[in-house]
Amino acid sequence: MTASTTRLLTTVVLAPLAALGVVGCRSDDSGTEGPGPGGTLTIVSSDWNGWDPEHTPTPRTTTLPASVGSSVTVDSIGETLTFEVARVGGGEVAVSSSRELAPEGETGGSNLNDLVDEFTVERGAETVLDTPTLDGGYSYTFTLS
């Protein structure tokens, strides 16, 4: 092989790989600087129950980088629950849960008929999910900043 053929093959092979490297380092288009490419995902978990009218919730706040693969484990009813960032982009993140949860209903309460284990959190909006129970559990409020 001649030197000019080697240079040509090197250019043909390495140019697309270099372009992939540039694309792979690009963050999402939200323009947010933070610990993750999508900013910070905040989760406020708060216990509730339906039988004690004097119950005082104990909210706990957890944050994690909004980057693919970031995860956190939080308390739930007698178990732990893991949330993991599955996708980042366009000013939102997709989050997967180790357990199905009930999304907030359109008129309040929880939608126990349409449980989810993956959901989207948009920047500037709250996403609220509850453990799918009627007598007591946890409410999880997600925000993206």
Span from first to last CA?
A: 55 Å
Oligomer: single chain
Helicity, in percent?
Answer: 10-25%
- Shape, per Cα inertia axes: globular
Order of helices and strands: HEEEEEEEE
Question: How many helical stretches?
Answer: 1
Largest sheet: 8 strands, antiparallel
Query: What structural category arises from helix and sheet content?
Result: alpha+beta
Tell me the Rg in angstroms.
Answer: 22 Å
Query: What is the tally of beta strands?
Result: 8
User: What is the arithmetic mean of pLDDT?
Assistant: 78
Beta-sheet strand percentage?
35-45%
Number of structural units classed as domains: 1
What does this protein structure show overall?
With 145 residues, the protein is α+β, with helices and mostly antiparallel strands. The chain has one domain. Helices cover 15% and strands 45% of the residues. It is built from 1 helix and 8 strands; from the N terminus they run αββββββββ. The protein has one helix spanning 3-24; strands at residues 40-49, 60-65, 71-76, 79-89, 92-103, 116-122, 127-130, 136-144. Strands 1, 2, 3, 4, 5, 6, 7 and 8 form an 8-stranded antiparallel sheet that branches. Residues 1-35 have low confidence and may be disordered.
Helices and strands in order, then pairings?
Layout: H1 3-24, E1 40-49, E2 60-65, E3 71-76, E4 79-89, E5 92-103, E6 116-122, E7 127-130, E8 136-144
Antiparallel strand pairs: 1-2, 1-8, 3-4, 4-5, 5-6, 5-7, 7-8
Region (Disordered): 27-67
Organism: Nocardioides plantarum
Protein name: Lipoprotein
Write a short abstract of this structure.
With 145 residues, the protein is α+β, with helices and mostly antiparallel strands.
